[in-house]
């Protein structure tokens, strides 16, 4: 389901104090009375008639439509795993499983989330992907010796096969995954 952007406020250049427009590290800023954005096709205004799919809590804009982010319609949501479903989802899985250990306050974890989401989509049907919030499920993290996050572990037949620590490039994770498919 697409997420709804309810409010977007963009200040005019004339509303920004002149001190904040001072050049920074070789960049120059010019004053303009209007802002021009490049073409971006990730957002669309959805008419009120076709908005039945979207939650009724969101507000209509002045023209009777909603602003919808279409990019989220194609995103794969990697589900979370907790202590209660760890055994059934990860250890008893017939296919290899990639598990990302993360926490909401972790900056590098937010950097690797899109990579894990992309890999989940790319390897759909061959590899199952899950995320474990180490703040909510510390016992799983302790059981597998997680001392740094993000940590990505590959499981096969219920056994830990490989681990990658840190926000690494997609190619590093792909190489790790390919060994166990």
From TrEMBL:
Keyword Nucleotidyltransferase: no
Annotated Thioredoxin domain residues: 69-181
UniProt keywords, alphabetically: Disulfide bond, Electron transport, Redox-active center, Transport
Domain of life from the UniProt record: Eukaryota
Pfam families the record matches: Thioredoxin
CDD domains on file: TRX_family (cd02947)
TM segment ranges: none
Protein name, UniProt field: Thioredoxin domain-containing protein
Source organism (scientific name): Rehmannia glutinosa
């Amino acid at each position: 389901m697409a997420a709804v952007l309810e409010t977007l406020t963009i200040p005019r250049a004339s509303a920004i104090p002149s001190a904040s427009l001072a050049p920074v590290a070789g960049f120059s800023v010019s004053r303009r009375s209007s802002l021009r954005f490049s073409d971006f096709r990730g957002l669309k205004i959805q008419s009120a008639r076709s908005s039945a799919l979207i939650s009724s809590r969101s507000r209509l804009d002045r023209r009777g439509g909603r602003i919808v982010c279409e990019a989220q319609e194609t995103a794969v949501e990697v589900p979370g795993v907790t202590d209660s479903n760890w055994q059934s989802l990860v250890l008893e899985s017939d296919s290899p499983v990639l598990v990302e250990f993360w926490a909401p306050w972790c900056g590098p974890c937010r950097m690797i989330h899109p990579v894990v989401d992309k890999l989940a989509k790319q390897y759909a049907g061959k590899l199952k992907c899950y995320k474990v919030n180490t703040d909510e499920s510390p016992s799983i993290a302790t059981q597998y010796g997680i001392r740094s996050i993000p940590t990505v572990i590959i499981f096969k037949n219920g056994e830990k096969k490989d681990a990658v620590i840190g926000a690494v490039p997609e190619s590093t994770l792909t190489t790790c995954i390919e060994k166990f498919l």
